[in-house]
Amino acid sequence: MYIVSSYPVAVFLCMITMLCWGSWANTQKLAEKSWRFELFYWDYVAGIVLMSLLFAFTLGSFGNEGRSFLRDLAQAESGKLLNAFTGGIIFNAANILVVAAISVAGMAVAFPVGIGIALVLGVLINYIASPQGNATWLFTGVTLITLAIVLDALAYRKKASQNSKVPAKGILLSVSGGILMALFYRFVASSMASNFEQPESGYLSPYTAVFIFTLGILTSNFVFNTILMKNPIEGKPVSYADYFSGRPKEHLTGILGGLIWCIGMSFSILAAGKAGFAISYGLGQGATLVAALWGVFIWKEFKQADGTSGLLTAMFLLFVAGISLIIYAGM
Question: What is the per-residue pLDDT for 23?
Fold first, then answer.
């Protein structure tokens, strides 16, 4: 299987993760005019599973290093499979909660609270479990990125109505989603071998871990998304008949979103072999600022929002500084 050979390559893959995790939601934005999120999400999950299989039977099966996907799957211990599967369930619950928080409280609350908690708590959990890299530089970088996310929130708040009141339910959803989002990566990491080149018996390769993780997402989606379809945060309930009445273009848009997200997840897990799980996760969660770049320059979300240019400039500068320190922490 393909294994990352050096730290610079690992950092490069983490940058791709950041781009993928910060960009997949554009597919939802393209589809939202004619396609409800609950229906879009089924195709998104399908795209995640398909990409994990593609990686497993290509990069995960070729080459002389490590164990090939099918051989690795056959020798895996049930406990390790369960850890990766549980990570998928937790991620799916977190993702749906964060999206629900955006619907209730808006991005100005959901992103800094939800993703801010996920970033700080996730890096802390992964560093304690697998300390790799300079803690001072790592957590200084995390702090700067957190400040950047806060400035992003302030910019959105300026754009929004000053009289709007944030519902308590929105804050609760944001906090719950953020905590779960911080936990899922550790479950996947705990299922994996510590040495990708010579993996320990019973543990999973990165490709097997990601595939089992996606099965956790798919299985739990029959519970979580079915509940959401019948009890939507906004709008009327939708049915499976509505899903199957969708046009090919709408289905393909959702699948594309899942493919993009899973490329990011796969590269993040691969990069962790050289960068460490804390650094790999922390860089990936910088995706919030990538999403902000799309919002500012492509979707023109701040086009008529006075007084936000200074906040946005400071946000991007803090983001670049934070990312640079996280990368430096692993050198």
Answer: 87
* 88-122 pLDDT, tens digit each: 999 999 988 887 777 676 665 666 777 778 888 99
Nearest to 90 by CA among 21, 171, 1, 185: 185
Whole-angstrom distance, CA of residue 107 vs CA of residue 152: 9
Q: How many CA atoms lie within 13 A of 294 on its CB side?
A: 17
- State residue 96's pLDDT score: 87
Sign of the dihedral through C-alpha 286, 172, 40, 224: positive
163 pLDDT more than 50:
no
- For 233, the 3-state DSSP assignment is coil
Instruction: State the Cα torsion 259-260-262-265 to the nearest 10°.
Output: 170
Six token digits for residue 172: 């609760």
Contact 122, 326 (CB under 8 A): no
Q: How far apart are CA 89 and CA 225, in angstroms?
A: 12
Which of 120, 113, 214 is CA-nearest to residue 167?
113
**Rounded to whole angstroms, what are the CA distances from 64 to 59, 200, 271?**
11, 16, 19
Give per-residue pLDDT as tens, 129-149.
Answer: 999 999 999 999 999 988 888
